[in-house]
Amino acid sequence: MKRHNWVHLRTGLCILAITAFASPLQAQFAEDALRFSQYGLGVGARSLGLGNTSIGAVNDYSALFSNPGGLALIRDFEFSVGLSYHGYNNDVKFFGNELASSRNFSNLNSLGLVYPIPTTRGSLTFAFAFGRVADFGTTAEFKGFNPSSSLILAKTPVTNLASLSINERKGLLDNNIPYQLFLADTLNGKLVSHVNGNVQQSVVVHEGGGLNHWSFGGAIDIAKDISFGASLNIVSGSYTYERDYAEDDTRNFYQRLPGESLGRFDHFSLVSTIDGELNGVNGLLGLMYRRPGKFHLGLTVRTPTTISVNENYSDEARSRFDPNANGSVDRFDISFDGKTEYRVITPAMFGAGLSIQLREWLMIAGDVEYADWTQIEFNSSNPDLLAENRLIKRIFRPTTNLRGGVELSLWNHGIQLRGGVNWKPSPYENDPPEYDQLYYTAGIGFQLDAHMTLNGAFAIGSWKTFRDNYSMTGLPSASRTAESVSTNNLNVTLTYRF
After folding, report:
1. How far apart are CA 434 and CA 476, in angstroms?
2. CA 20 to 30 Å from 94, out of 35, 58, 130, 161?
């Protein structure tokens, strides 16, 4: 089983699911559902500078994504555009070796338009915005000598072939990668792997894509100093996965099998790719209670999201043997590709935020956000996905994210300085504290003129995690990494009010 989340990376490499009764199918795991359920570091540079604190501190277009009730605070027309940079670094330890890898991404982070309606009392405001709410970009590279297991062995199912019908047996063998590459054979009514360990394992994994929200919404004052807002979020996005896995007999452990014309096993590789398209919809409801010059209190409810996932996948596998008795090198290859569709239902999220104006020039803010990750589920009648739903109940847990920030205004210079912290506990049951994600942020805002503001923010994050390349009965961590992840995020937002 793989464990892999956008920011809490735990990926298994057994992508191709082969059963005794079916053609190759793309397998979905609980971690796939979790990846599409979580959000990143938010939208907008001001929010990022405050540690992603926004539920009770928002005062611009980004209210659509955090608390639409805050739109009622905006009295001028507003247009905003933001760019983001995401850097991902991963130090991986694997069987005594350590390798570092990194990837960088740049995206349009936001595009927003706010349209306040003139009123004689209270406020009525509408807004439209695009926001990049999550990035899936990750990387990992590692290699090491595994003395006790191999992916070839893990992909050789322990099955009594005699108990299968002729068609079932043919389906199993036709679609089994080790068998087709002459790395496994039938023996005494079973499928037996020729490679059981003592191999050099090398892996490179890249992920990409992300989630976008196209948001429409508005806010209205429903009482003195109380506003209610709502936004409808059209979810779009993509997910890409590329994994290059190899096993080599670097120590000449394997010999030519008696009676076989093939040479000794030398090399096995498996290249897997996924190209997925994501679509869905959710809603966000928000209240904002304000005491001008003193504090703002916000409450939010985000509805569950139903995300439709359409994936194209491919697996290309190769084997190579040392020169045989005739001096020639034998090479074999096989490939599978296909499409799969499934739906993921994410949990509802509940948030509360408070910002306090301690002085005219000093504001502090904090958010809490609760989600029960055991409520994630695959919406399908597929028995394999239903089994994953049961697994979700066991391996995930509810979490409460905590965010805090401070904003210092230097009015004489038109400058605002910000700092914050963002703590996101691991959604996995029984994870140690070092698996929680912790971000420190800093930001600055410039009042360029009477109408234009430029905000910039930077965030650094770090946490630890692990990765299971594959699992085997009795050896759940047969090929496991220990990983230290760090991220760098930069956001720049330009706002024009008129």
Report:
1. 21
2. 35
- State how far the Cα of 495 lies from the Cα of 498, in Å rounded to an integer: 10
Quick check: 17 pLDDT over 90?
Answer: no
Cα–Cα dist 301/229, whole Å:
11
**Tens of pLDDT along 316-356?**
999 999 987 677 888 999 999 999 999 999 999 999 999 99
Res 6 pLDDT > 60: no
pLDDT at 257: 66
pTM for the complete prediction? 0.90
Measured CA to CA, the distance from residue 449 to residue 441 in angstroms comes to: 26
Identify the structural domains of the chain with CATH numbers, from first to last.
25-146+203-497 (2.40.160.60)
Amino acid at 44: G
Nearest-angstrom CA–CA distance, 290 and 223: 11
Where on the phi/psi map is residue 42: left (φ > 0), alpha (ψ -120 to 50), or beta?
Answer: left
What single-letter amino acid sits at 168? E
Cβ neighbours for 409, distance < 8 A, ≥ 6 positions apart: 360, 361, 362, 363, 415, 416
Q: How many residues does the chain have?
A: 498
